[in-house]
Amino acid sequence: MLKSKNRTNLSIIDSDLSIDGSLTSRGKLIIKGSLKGTIDGEIVVIAKEGKVHSDAKVSSMTIGGSFRGEISATKELIILSTGRCEGKVKCKDLIVENGGILNAEVVSMKSDKYAAEKEKNAFLKSDMKNSNSIEL
Question: Per-domain residue ranges for the chain?
């Protein structure tokens, strides 16, 4: 039997399915139904009809339906024009399409590259201040 190395796991919570509890998913998870509890996953997509009340730790989340709770996304959070997000959000990149609703406390995760650049700029500003001072 041949196995594909590029195979991506795909899980779907269909529109007539309701889950109350903890969910761990690898690969892509599409939520069309309702979920209450916790999510630990990679790529999570809440479809237009999906309703989620959760604490979520993910790599990437796209919201087309409604989300309430806390999200920690190491890569990105995308709120589509039909999406609604309420609660607390911590993510690296945030995209909100026109019409999408974001009513949350938002904290931006800084990439290592950004943090290094900021530190370098602070050093240069400090160095410039010291070199421009005149001693009398």
Answer: 10-132
